[in-house]
Amino acid sequence: MNDLARAVWERRSQQATRIVDAHAHAGPYSVFFIPEPDPGPMIRVMDRCGVSHAVFSSHLAIQLDAAAGNAATAAIVAEAPDRFTGYITVNPWQDPLAELGKWGDDPRFGGIKLHPDLHEYPLNGSRYAPVWELAELTGCPVLTHTFAGSPYNDMPMLDEVAERHPGATILAGHSGVTPLGIDQAIEVAERRPGVILEVCGSHNSGADIARMVRRVGADRVVYGSDFPFIDLRMSLGRVLFADLTDNERAAVLGGTISGLLEWR
């Protein structure tokens, strides 16, 4: 049994590996109640689970108001820069250039977040052009929501964008979500070196994560939780108990995303 799994069984916070959650959120969500969605309670849960750092976007930003949500993200990072890094949320209907211009050079932000499903705008649409331009110019990673069969962010759209922008690093949030989507996401990542598979969601398993690593390598797979939208322990447990080597597990849990954030 690896040291991380042993810590789970012994009900203690692990200290063996620096864990970085590549897909988190903060703040209330308007559609349903999320208990304790603010930074203080989140840090307590992270501490209990041995998670050192989280890269997050504001629920407000991804759903209703990108400008106000990005400002909230910046404020949270300013209060706890050792625990959080922000994503600049770009809503294609809410002046992407203004948000990228305001926050693009701010060290509190380490990436860009897109949610085509919530914003009802296709991932391959022209309004995202400033995002891909910045990503290719700087190395700033872009985390996008993906969902198999979606009219806004399915796997063929991800494939098209990655082909069109080979210099961009694109984190495929949820890796397509469904069993079919996971298969398709792996195939896209095999074709497109800039695509990184992110593992949070309600449908995948440790076996799926191990298969991702076997097919594309641990340097192309990152742990994310969707916390506090989804309990981070579920996504974390799938990685802790997956059939991976210690080095592969360490890369997925934090090494790969930490390297991607070094563009700053």
From TrEMBL:
GO cellular component: a single term: cytoplasm
KW Lyase (keyword) present: yes
Species the sequence originates in: Nonomuraea turkmeniaca
Entry protein name: Amidohydrolase
Keyword entries, A-Z: Hydrolase, Lyase
UniProt GO MF annotations: carboxy-lyase activity; hydrolase activity
Domain called Amidohydrolase-related: residue spans: 20-256
One GO BP: secondary metabolic process
InterPro entries according to UniProt: ACMSD, Amidohydro-rel, Metal_Hydrolase
